[in-house]
Every structure is written in structure tokens, then in C-alpha cells.
Inverse folding.
């Protein structure tokens, strides 16, 4: 009787603990999703100040630590389109400090520590494209403010990040492999101590049945034309325009040639490259022109996908659920914008595709996928092992408690920088004689932008969603 009371007490304690864990886990996840949903809702309407203040107030203001990296990225982007360039740059500086902090700690090794729970227990550490876009946006902020020396530094940093991204990614893959070996050794020792069957991590991770199931669930994982090795054509092109405006035609030529190789069908990029090449040959300099950059729509978000997979444990295939993130693409604001040139021009010029932020995100997500899946499978293995040991020690109550824990902690990391656009577009016209450029959207609404009639300028337009206010600014080249 005494044994039964002890068992009942253990069962009650375990059940209460696991129930609380389930509730807390659900509340945390729901809160994070609500926060993301609210930011996206107000940001997509062009309420940039409100969106920035929401993130800053929610997470302790501008001086919050590196653990609030994602919120700072969101707020800094919103402030940029509210034309609060200095404050935006200050926040982007703090984002760079966070990148440095996490790079010094290493991403992959510590991420394997999440296998007993899930990736959401880790701080958001940023993607490679996050860092590249931070430097690009900082460069554009400085360019707008006329601080061209600082803009040059930021463009060079962005280009250097692109160059080093492939090398860093290779190191992360090596760390993941080393982490698996270390985890296997730890598990073998633990299984020996618990007198329980060990788990074969490599066998589980490389199970061909898992691959077949996931191919169906992720049928579109590679259904896009990837950009080469983390290169963002927008960053490369904007750097090319900047160095061209500074008279550094040699560097501009290299960058515009690289851009042209990725977006060869774009007539404006082709024209820029040809004219820079002519300038290098000592021929006529670039005509006075107006460039129009259209930052269009909203970039991808992540959704949770729960998949039942056969996880091999103790030489048996145990069907268990794992949670994985899945990209969901969002709509562009408009397919293009019309640009009126001089009164003598025939027809209207239309913006043309320059860079797809979706492809940039998809390229990196596909490369990260191996690590994401590996951690999810190891997590499922560790929980299956824990359930086996709990059942062995505590019987049915232990097995039930372990099952509740597994359900409570099976969750995908859906954090992503949602303030980025769907794509970037470009157009170019000669400087208008009347100093006015008319930007018309397909629904008929238009905006008149005043520019110099005799000097090169760049009109930067942001429209997150159809019907949202048109945000624009003019940079002097």
C-alpha cells in the first residue's frame, strides 16, 4: 500500500509539472505569434513609427541586450521608412553588435544544446542575409544623410559579408557534424549508466524513409532558382551605383557586371554596366539620370509544419512527430510601377525586377535545412530515450509524463525578419526638364517627386502592401 501511495504521489507531481510546462510553453508560443502578427499588421499598412515603438516598448527599448536582436531588426527597418535615419542606424549598429556577440560564441555548437527542448529556447541569432541587409540599409541611411565616407564603409562591409558567408557556412556544417559525434558519445555513456539501449544518431538522421517523407512535405524546398552563395543582387547593385556615383568606375564595373550576370534580362542594369565600361575607356560619362528603386511587398514568414516520422530507437521504428519551420511567401504590393519621363518621351517606363528577397531567403533556408532537421530528429530521439527510461523507472506514470513533455516541447522556430520586402525593382530615366517625376501605381494612384533637373538622383520607394501609403525619399548621387 505504501508503495502504491508513493507511486501515486510521483505520478501526481509529474503530471502537475508536465501540465504546467505544457501551459507555459503554449502561452509563450502564443504570445510570440501574437506579437509577430501585430507588428506585421501595422507595418504592412505603412504605420512605421507605431511598428517601431511597439517592438521597442515590448522589449525594453533601444538598450536591450543581444537577445532582442529580431525586435531591433524590425524596429530599425520601420524607423528607416519613417525617415528616422539616425535612430534607424543606431539600432542597426546594435544589431551588428549582437551578430558579433553570437558569431564569437558560435551558432551550431550551442544550437545542439536545444535538442532536449526545441530551437525556440535559443536566442534569435540572425541569418547571413540579415547581416548583409543591415550593412546595406546602413549604407543607404548614410547615403541619404550625405555621409558618403560612412556609406562607403557600410557597402564594403556588406560586400565582405557576402564574400565570407560561404566560408562561415562551411564552418557551421563542420560544427554540426562534430556536435553530432559529441552528442553520440554522451548518449552512449548515459545509456550505459541507465542500462538502456543507446540511440544511433547517424542512423536516425540518415534514415532514407525520413528523406522520402520530407520530400513530399517540402516538395518546393528547392523549387526556385537559387542565387550563388548568399549573394544578394540588390546589395551588389546598390554598391555598384554608389561607387559609380563616386567616380570609382573600376569597382563599379566589377559590381555591375556581377549584378548583370544574375539579372541579365534587366535593361537598366545592362545600360549601367555598358556606360561604366565606356567611362573606363575614357568615353562619354554617364548622362544625368534618375534611378527609381522600388522596395516591393513583404518577404517570407515561417509557419510550423508537424510531420510524423519513423524514428529508429532500440532497433525499432517509432512513429513520432517533429516540428519544422516552413517558408510561406507573401504578396507583392504591385507587380511594377510606372515612371513618367520627359514630356517628349513616348509612353511610360516601367520598373523591372532587380532582386528577389524571397530567393535570397529561400537559398539560405535550403542550406540551413540540414541543421534544422538534424536538431529536430536528435530532439525526438532524446525524448524517445527519456520516455523509455521514465517508463522503466516509474512505469505508466513516467511514460505519460514523458509523453506530455514531448508534446509540450515539440515546436518549430518560426522567427524571421518579416520587415524585409518581397523583391526590389529598378527603373531609370533621364533627368526631367521640369524637375518632376510622376510615379504611378497600377491602380491609378500617383505621386509627384521633385528632383534636380540637372543632377543625378535616386528615388527610393517603399510600398509594403497594396493600398498602403507610398513612402519615398530622394538621394543625391
Amino acid at each position: 500500500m505504501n508503495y502504491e501511495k508513493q507511486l501515486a504521489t510521483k505520478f501526481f507531481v509529474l503530471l502537475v509539472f508536465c501540465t504546467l510546462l505544457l501551459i507555459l510553453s503554449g502561452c509563450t508560443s502564443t504570445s510570440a505569434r501574437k506579437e509577430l502578427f501585430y507588428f506585421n499588421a501595422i507595418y504592412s499598412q505603412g504605420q512605421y513609427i507605431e511598428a517601431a515603438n511597439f517592438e521597442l516598448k515590448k522589449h525594453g527599448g533601444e538598450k536591450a541586450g543581444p537577445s532582442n536582436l529580431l525586435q531591433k531588426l524590425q524596429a530599425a527597418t520601420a524607423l528607416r521608412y519613417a525617415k528616422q535615419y539616425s535612430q534607424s542606424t543606431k539600432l542597426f549598429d546594435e544589431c551588428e553588435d549582437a551578430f558579433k556577440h553570437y558569431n564569437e560564441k558560435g551558432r551550431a555548437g550551442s544550437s545542439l544544446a536545444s535538442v532536449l527542448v526545441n530551437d525556440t529556447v535559443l536566442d534569435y541569432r540572425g541569418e547571413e542575409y540579415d547581416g548583409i541587409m543591415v550593412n546595406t540599409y546602413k549604407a543607404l541611411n548614410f547615403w541619404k544623410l550625405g555621409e558618403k565616407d560612412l556609406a562607403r564603409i557600410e557597402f564594403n562591409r556588406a560586400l565582405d559579408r557576402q564574400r565570407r558567408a560561404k566560408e562561415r557556412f562551411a564552418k557551421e556544417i563542420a560544427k554540426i557534424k562534430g556536435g553530432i559525434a559529441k552528442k553520440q558519445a554522451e548518449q552512449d555513456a548515459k545509456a550505459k549508466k541507465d542500462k538502456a539501449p543507446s540511440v544511433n544518431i547517424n542512423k536516425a538522421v540518415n534514415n532514407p524513409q525520413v528523406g522520402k517523407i520530407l520530400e513530399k512535405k517540402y516538395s518546393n524546398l528547392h523549387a526556385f532558382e537559387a542565387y550563388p552563395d548568399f549573394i544578394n543582387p540588390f546589395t551588389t547593385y546598390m554598391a555598384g551605383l554608389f561607387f559609380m556615383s563616386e567616380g570609382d568606375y573600376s569597382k563599379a564595373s566589377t559590381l555591375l557586371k556581377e549584378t548583370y550576370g544574375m539579372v541579365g534580362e534587366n535593361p537598366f542594369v545592362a545600360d549601367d554596366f555598358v556606360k561604366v565600361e565606356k567611362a573606363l575607356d575614357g568615353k562619354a560619362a554617364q548622362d544625368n539620370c534618375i534611378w527609381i528603386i522600388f522596395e516591393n511587398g513583404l518577404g517570407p514568414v515561417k509557419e510550423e509544419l508537424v510531420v510524423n516520422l519513423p524514428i529508429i530507437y532500440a532497433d525499432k521504428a517509432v512513429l513520432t512527430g517533429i516540428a519544422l519551420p516552413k517558408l510561406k511567401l507573401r504578396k507583392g504590393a504591385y507587380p511594377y510601377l510606372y515612371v513618367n519621363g520627359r514630356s517628349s518621351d513616348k509612353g511610360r517606363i516601367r520598373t523591372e525586377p532587380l532582386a528577389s528577397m524571397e530567393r535570397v531567403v529561400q537559398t539560405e533556408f535550403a542550406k540551413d535545412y540540414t541543421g534544422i532537421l538534424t536538431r529536430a530528429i536528435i530532439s525526438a530521439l532524446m525524448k524517445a530515450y527519456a520516455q523509455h527510461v521514465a517508463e522503466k523507472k516509474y512505469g505508466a506514470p513516467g511514460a505519460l509524463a514523458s509523453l506530455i513533455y514531448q508534446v509540450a516541447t515539440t515546436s518549430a522556430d518560426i522567427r524571421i525578419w518579416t520587415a524585409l520586402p518581397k523583391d526590389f525593382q529598378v527603373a531609370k530615366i533621364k533627368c526631367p526638364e521640369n524637375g518632376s517625376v510622376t510615379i504611378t501605381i497600377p491602380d491609378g494612384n500617383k505621386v509627384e517627386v521633385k528632383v534636380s533637373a540637372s543632377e543625378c538622383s535616386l528615388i527610393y520607394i517603399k510600398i509594403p502592401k497594396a493600398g498602403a501609403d507610398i513612402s519615398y525619399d530622394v538621394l543625391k548621387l
Remarks:
- The mean pLDDT is 82.
- Residues 2-476 form one domain.
- Residues 5 and 31 are 39 Å apart (CA to CA).
